[in-house]
Write a structure and sequence with these properties.
The longest helix is centred in the C-terminal third of the chain and has 11 residues, at 211-221. The chain folds into 2 domains: 4-190, Galactose-binding domain-like (Jelly Rolls, Sandwich); 197-269, Dockerin domain (Type 1 dockerin domain, Orthogonal Bundle), CATH 1.10.1330.10. The chain is 17% helix and 27% strand. By secondary structure, it is α+β, with helices and mostly antiparallel strands.
Amino acid sequence: MITDDDIILYAVWDESYCVFDTDDLKATKGSGWTSVETVPESKTDTSYFRFMAESSATSSDNSRAWLNFDWENDFSAGFSLHDYKYMKIGYRTNISTSTKMDMNIYSVHDRVYGPVMTLVSDGKWQTHVYDLSTITKGPSSGCNFQNCCDGVLKQVFFKPHYPSGTAILEGDYFDIQYVALFKTKEEANAYEYPLPPVIIGDVDSDGEVGATDAIFLERYLASWTGYDENNVNVSAADVNSDTKVNVIDSIILSRHIANWIGYENIPIE
């Protein structure tokens, strides 16, 4: 049986929760995804798994677009789910043809069907909390969360649920940042995965604030091709802390870089 000390070696753990990320998980792809890679930590983002579709698939290929996470075998052999009633995931996606995500939990005995998640497909990090204690269905008669996952957590997979007539499209991606287990819903809702600090003004995410950042922001505001939220750090562009990014931020950033008096420090509130 794995002890508390052993658990610390595999994941962030304390009395009430356990967090698994790219250091603790293995990712494998279904055939609906062209590739899966582990994206390393950067100055503006944590490491994460990215599942990418480099070609489109028809709606009949729904079962191919599945996401599967393998826990460390020697860890899962003694880890009990019974104390952890809630699962929280950090994800990001741009999928537009699917609004739902299926989830299954595997044990060495069987598997159970998790609740269906409604996807938020805006290309930004999102979270979702599953209530595992409500799981009552599985492929075998009488299979439920309690009797199928008795201390032998093996795999979790996520699968876009495409309605009839829709398909996975070229360029679709699904990112997983972490999978966490909690004893209470309150703890699950309150948990925030630690992110790298945002350097205000570092719009190009190179770790410094300089002339290039002002250029990036100007081109972002002017809707230049290649200067969208995928490569412009919008969080760092709000230099006047009004929760908006507009021409005022561009003016302030340019004056800060040019060492105008009164603009020595950003953010300006």
